[in-house]
Amino acid sequence: MKNTLKVSLGFALMLLGLSSYGATLTVWEDLNKTNGIRDFADQFEKKYGVKVDIQGKDSANHVYDVADLISRGEKTPDIFLIVSDRVGDAMSKGILAPIENMEQEKSHYIETATELFKVKGKYYGVPRSIEALIVYYNKDVMPVPYETLNEYIEFTDKHKAQGIYGLISKVDNFYYSYGFFGAYGSYVFKQNSEGEFNPYNIGLDNDKAVKGVSVLADFAKKHVPMSVLGQEGWANIDEMFKSGKVGAIINGPWTLDGYASSGINYGVAPLPKLPDGTPMRPFFGVKSYAISSTSENKKLAEEFIKFINQTEFALKRYHRIAELPPIKELLSKEEITNDDYASAIAAQVEYADPMPTIPQMAHVWVPMEETLYSIIKNNEPIEAALDLGVMKIKQKIAEN
C-alpha cells in the first residue's frame, strides 16, 4: 500500500514536471497569520508527498531578510511575502525568481494586482491580498459613516465644543494624505504606457498637487486637532478613536485586529468625497507571494502558491486573517459583496493609485512629510513648500 501511494505521489509530481518527492518547502507567512494557510498546506503535503514548513515572520522585513541570507550564502525560504512598493528594491537585489505559470494564472486575479509585479514581461509575485486606506467609524459616536468630507466637517462643527471631532487622520504623513494629491490627478512618478515609473518625472509640485494640498491644508487646520501632528500623533489618533473623542479615522487594514480586540463598536467605509465631489484617491498596495531566486524548489513553490490561492481556500483565508484576496471569482461572491469590510476595501481600490514600485520611492517619504508638516503646522506657502519638497526628493535620488 505504501509503495502504491509513493508511486501515485511520484506520478502526480511527474505530471507537473517536478522531481521533488520528499522535499521540504519552506514558506514565510506574515506574523500571526500562519493559520490562514496551515490546513491547506497539510492537504498539499498529502497530495504531493512533500513537507511544507510554514514560519510566521513580520512581512515588512521579508525582502531585507531574504536579501541578507542570500548575501551571506545561506539558505532562504522558498516562498516569502513582498508588498508591491518593494518590487524595484527586490529586483535590484536579485532576490526574486520569475513565476513562470503566472502567464496562465493571471486571469484568476484582478489586473491591477498582477501588473504591479510584472517587470519586462515577466511576473515576480502572485497576489495574496490588496490593501488601501479606508474609514473606520465608532458606531457609538457616529451611527453611520458619511459620503462626503463636508458632512464629517459638519459633524465636527456640531460636537467640537464637547471635544469630539468628526474625522481625523495623520494629515502630515504622505501615505495617509496622498488621497488629496491623487484626487486631482497629481502623481509621485509618471507612468508610461507600459506602467513603468519614471523617477525623473515627479508630479508632487504641479498645479494638481497644489489644488489637492490646498483642500488638505484647509481641512487639517480648521477641523483636525494639531495633536495628530509629529511622531506623537500616531498614539494620539489611536487614543482619540478608542476613547470616543472622534467619530471616524482614516487608517489601513493593518489596524483592524487592534480595533476588533479593543471592543470598539466599529464599522468601515470608503474614504469620503472632497468638498467639490471629487473622490479621494489614496495609494493601494498588493501583498504577494514571491519565490526566492536561490530556491531549489521553484516549480514546487509555484504549484503550492497556485494550490493555496484556489478561490475556496482564499475565501477561508480571508475569513481567518481579514486580508482580502484580489481574486475575481472571490470578489464577486455574495458573502464578500455583503461584507462591509471587504466591500470598503474593494470599493476604495477602484479609486486608488498604485504605489510606485521603483526603489526611488524610498526617497519620497521624509521630504514630503516635512513638507506637509511645514504647510499645516507652520503655515508655509503651499507652492513654495511643495517646490522645496520635490527639490529635496530630486537631490536624494541624484545622490543615490
Automatic annotation (TrEMBL):
Annotated InterPro entries: Maltose/Cyclodextrin-bd, SBP
Signal peptide: 1-22
GO biological process, one term: maltodextrin transmembrane transport
Broad class of the protein's primary localization: periplasm
Molecular functions per Gene Ontology: carbohydrate transmembrane transporter activity; maltose binding
Compartments, record wording: Periplasm
A GO CC term assigned to this protein in UniProt: ATP-binding cassette (ABC) transporter complex, substrate-binding subunit-containing
Keywords (A to Z) from UniProt: Periplasm, Signal, Sugar transport, Transport
Origin superkingdom: Bacteria
UniProt xrefs under Pfam families: SBP_bac_8
Purpose: Part of the ABC transporter complex MalEFGK involved in maltose/maltodextrin import. Binds maltose and higher maltodextrins.
Family membership noted in the UniProt record: Belongs to the bacterial solute-binding protein 1 family.
Name of this protein: Maltodextrin-binding protein
Organism: Succinivibrio dextrinosolvens
